[in-house]
Amino acid sequence: MMDRELLRLYFICGSEDAKGEPLETIREALEGGVTIFQLREKGTHPLEGEALIRFASDIKAICKEHDVPFIVNDDWKLAEAVDADGIHLGQDDMAVSDLPEYFDDKIIGLSVRDAAELEVSSLEKVDYVGTGPVFTTPSKADAGAAIGIEGLVEMRRLIGDTPMVAIGGINETNYKACLDSGADGISLISAIAWAEDVKGAASGFLDG
């Protein structure tokens, strides 16, 4: 089982998510105490091809400097190309069981929203579960309706000891409720990426 402390402050960012320059935003967030990072390259004009590989490689170097695991969302070929520390898959992505051997000793995360999704998900090779959206989120148009704190408590009951990170609409006013309701950590995009003081915003989420 992965060290659940790694999930404590999980930052997700792509080239279009940051208010400032993306690589600098990521560096400042890691300096602020982010414990694990995920590259999620979505948006209206996502990077592709060599540009995406360069961007991912630069982020990996920053993560390595700070001894923070580097996770790639969905794109297993990119993860393998840049020697990422792991991958995060959604319910509509490829099945965990279909991942190449490369990922046998890597971190594998899976989005599992509720009991219905858990029923059709195998957690056999999964290192952690991402659950949400806990609250309404501006960062992910396809996230679906919020499950609330009640949904988080229910998922903790259902998955037992499996490490779990809460995601969706989490900010400085509600993150502690997630940690108090069974989540090992919180996952954030806009609350860090759009902050005026990125480093300060990240460190603020480590209180409590």
Automatic annotation (TrEMBL):
Family, per entry: Belongs to the thiamine-phosphate synthase family.
Domain annotation Thiamine phosphate synthase/TenI: ranges: 9-192
Annotated cofactor note: Binds 1 Mg(2+) ion per subunit.
Protein's recorded name: Thiamine-phosphate synthase
Residues binding 4-amino-2-methyl-5-(diphosphooxymethyl)pyrimidine, per UniProt: Q38, L39, R40, E41, K42, N73, S111, K140
Catalytic activity: 2-(2-carboxy-4-methylthiazol-5-yl)ethyl phosphate + 4-amino-2-methyl-5-(diphosphooxymethyl)pyrimidine + 2 H(+) = thiamine phosphate + CO2 + diphosphate; 4-methyl-5-(2-phosphooxyethyl)-thiazole + 4-amino-2-methyl-5-(diphosphooxymethyl)pyrimidine + H(+) = thiamine phosphate + diphosphate; 2-[(2R,5Z)-2-carboxy-4-methylthiazol-5(2H)-ylidene]ethyl phosphate + 4-amino-2-methyl-5-(diphosphooxymethyl)pyrimidine + 2 H(+) = thiamine phosphate + CO2 + diphosphate
Residues involved in 2-[(2R,5Z)-2-carboxy-4-methylthiazol-5(2H)-ylidene]ethyl phosphate binding: T137, P138, S139, G169, I189, S190
Organism annotation: Salinicoccus bachuensis
